[in-house]
Amino acid sequence: MFNRICIIGVGLIGGSIARAARQQGLSNTIVGYGRQQDEQNLQTAKQLGVIDDYMLDLAEAVQGADCVVIATPVASIESIFVLLKPLWSDSAIYTDVGSTKGSVIAAAERVFGVVPDNLVPAHPIAGAEQSGVTASVNDLFLNKRLIITPVGNTKPEAVQKIQGFWERLGSLVSVMDVQHHDGVLAATSHLPHILAFALVDMLGHKDEQSEIFQYAAGGFKDFTRIASSDPTMWKDICAANKDEIIPLIEQLKGELDKIQRLLETNDTRQLFETFTYARNARQRFLDQFDNNINMSKSITFQVQPGGKLQGEARVPGDKSMSHRSIMLGSLAEGVTHVKGFLEAEDALATLQAFRDMGVEIEGPVNGELTIHGVGKHGLKAPTNDLYLGNSGTSMRLLSGLLAGQAFNSVLTGDKSLSGRPMKRVTEPLAAMGADIKTTEKGTAPLHITGRAGQLTGIDYAMPIASAQVKSCLLLAGMYAQGVTSVTEPAPTRDHTERMLSGFNYPVKQEGNKVSITAEGSLTATDIDVPSDISSAAFFLVGASIAPGSDLLLKHVGVNPTRIGVIDILRLMGANIEVLNERTVGGEPVADLHVVYSALKGIDIPEHLVPLAIDEFPVLFVAAACAEGQTRLTGAEELRVKESDRIQVMADGLQILGVDAQSTEDGMIIQGGSIGGGEVISHGDHRIAMSFSIAGLRANAPITIYDCENVNTSFPEFRDLAKRLGLDLVCREA
Ligand SMILES: O=C(O)C1=C[C@@H](OP(=O)(O)O)[C@@H](O)[C@H](O)C1
Ligand SMILES: C=C(OP(=O)(O)O)C(=O)O
């Protein structure tokens, strides 16, 4: 990209630019310039291989450079411009990394009269408390934002080249105007630094200083981390941007005054609202931040072949029940305590949505939650879109619940969820009088106009066996005139019905038809969520296929509408014992003992399909290890889960050398041996975990790409799998 880059000031930022540019091969030569007193640092930079050479004479340093990067503190940039002026070359590009941009541009105007058209002001939003070249690293700018603030006469080619340069260093580049940059940075960077310095200054001067610091814990350390930053640099930044910072300090004083008043008047309600608003706003920031990072961060699992699963484990809480515990607990009168809640992204998305609608929910701490129910009509309008991540259950159930509220809402999700069919819920809801707009394709975002008091019950025969559709309509039915009935073509999970009864809300079950009305209210209760059989399934299959395995999975939910995986594995010859069966909070629970046993291929009975719907990815792995052919039919629903689970599994199994043929509604697999190879999970948690389990019977290593979404249902999977005997390592890139 460049022949010679000259970096003026080889500290943390300058050094990290040099390292990353070298790693990316962006320049033939990289030299550093500093003052006499910086020589030691420059020598270190050369010894570390950060720069090729250094000069203490600026004319020598910039000689032949086609890119000059000014990476000195903002206050010194004007004096650097003065030194550079007689050496300025029209054929080079000049850029800087100052944290304030108005001051840099003003300095250039003072020195040059007009800002040179080959000066591209830029600001990488990356840094650390440490300084000096020894703190520099290759990846300081990876996935970090960088803002370019050109002025009217800046050459577009120069802007483009600097933009390309920073993108190659891994930054996410935006171009904006100078004042906007300085305003945004004053709020998000300069003010927080001032606050951290001020707090430590205040506490440090108290007599009881040593005692205060002795008892200060993680919160203090987190909050004041940036007070360890370089005071020289920060006094310069704050002084350079004071016009933007001072009005913000005034606003902050107002906010602190407000909180003081709330405390003086014991207005804990208002205090809660302030804190909740702030917490939610921070969550939105974190989601955005994670989205940026996730643009290129990906998690890869590498599994070594062989091993066996042994020991005892309790897998995390049931996802379906965790969603419903939040929904019904929020709508109940009184306080609901939940134990065993699944602390994974999908269930947490539901939790966040209810917080966004004004419900006070404490926790989760070790799977325990306290939900302060607001009653059936107590939800509040969310101030923003409700973001439901990867979770189909959250979106479909909420669409029913929100259709009959007195406020409007918008439901959004990630890329996978935004591609999943929503007409299956919006069409019957429309027949009830709901007003929900989807995209033309019938997908999210869902724009819901609340039609409180205007929904009417329907008698709906579901064309597909879906617990999400059934639950959606039952939740809408709680707000509809008359009776809402849903008839299912085959039994599906009945957690909504059971939990409604647990909350004392009347639901009527007659054969395959369930009915509800608006008559009733929910009474708070305690919920004990058992382990998720869909998560246990990975280990049920793992132990069944790996010789020598002997595993006890404790406290697993064995609701008859969920145990298809046990029935199918047993038909294949698996050795699974259901022990110590009991009922906990209206749901059957048991310990599952599974011992290795040679499996044989079967034709999977279609009536078991809805009862094992989420377990097919891992059941395909069982089939690949079984003797003979396994055939699945009647499972077209698998094509519209987090990924097309038929195609993605068939593709992956074929890569591993398995004879797996996808069909429209299922798969035909000839059992045999599993080889090694590289497969992609397509961001689908169950695919990632299924191929990991395949490693137990593979004859070579398996690499599985794109596994970050394991966190949606089973964040502990990799640690637990390793503890039980799977040789899995996880790489983050
Ligand atoms: O109601 C639920 O909690 C679920 C129902 C099923 O979806 P469908 O209703 O689309 O079959 C299942 O796949 C999903 O993981 C959870
Ligand atoms: C299909 C699943 O979940 P959801 O529909 O809630 O995204 C699943 O967990 O396998």
From TrEMBL:
Positions contributing to phosphoenolpyruvate binding: K319, G392, R420, Q468, R645, R686
Recorded GO CC terms: cytoplasm
Reactions catalysed, as given in the entry: prephenate + NAD(+) = 3-(4-hydroxyphenyl)pyruvate + CO2 + NADH; 3-phosphoshikimate + phosphoenolpyruvate = 5-O-(1-carboxyvinyl)-3-phosphoshikimate + phosphate
GO MF assignments: 3-phosphoshikimate 1-carboxyvinyltransferase activity; NAD+ binding; prephenate dehydrogenase (NAD+) activity; prephenate dehydrogenase (NADP+) activity
A Pfam family recorded for this sequence: PDH_N
UniProt entry keywords in alphabetical sequence: Amino-acid biosynthesis, Aromatic amino acid biosynthesis, Cytoplasm, NAD, Oxidoreductase, Transferase, Tyrosine biosynthesis
Domain Prephenate/arogenate dehydrogenase: 3-293
Listed EC numbers: 2.5.1.19
Active site: D614
Pathway the protein acts in: Amino-acid biosynthesis; L-tyrosine biosynthesis; (4-hydroxyphenyl)pyruvate from prephenate (NAD(+) route): step 1/1; Metabolic intermediate biosynthesis; chorismate biosynthesis; chorismate from D-erythrose 4-phosphate and phosphoenolpyruvate: step 6/7
Annotated binding of 3-phosphoshikimate, by residue: K319, S320, R324, S466, Q468, D614, K641
One annotated GO biological process: chorismate biosynthetic process
Main location: cytoplasm
Domain of life: Bacteria
Function as written in the Swiss-Prot or TrEMBL entry: Catalyzes the transfer of the enolpyruvyl moiety of phosphoenolpyruvate (PEP) to the 5-hydroxyl of shikimate-3-phosphate (S3P) to produce enolpyruvyl shikimate-3-phosphate and inorganic phosphate.
Family named by the database record: Belongs to the prephenate/arogenate dehydrogenase family.
Description of how the protein assembles with itself and partners: Monomer.
Record protein name field: 3-phosphoshikimate 1-carboxyvinyltransferase
Species of the source: Methylobacter tundripaludum (strain ATCC BAA-1195 / DSM 17260 / SV96)
Gene for this chain: aroA
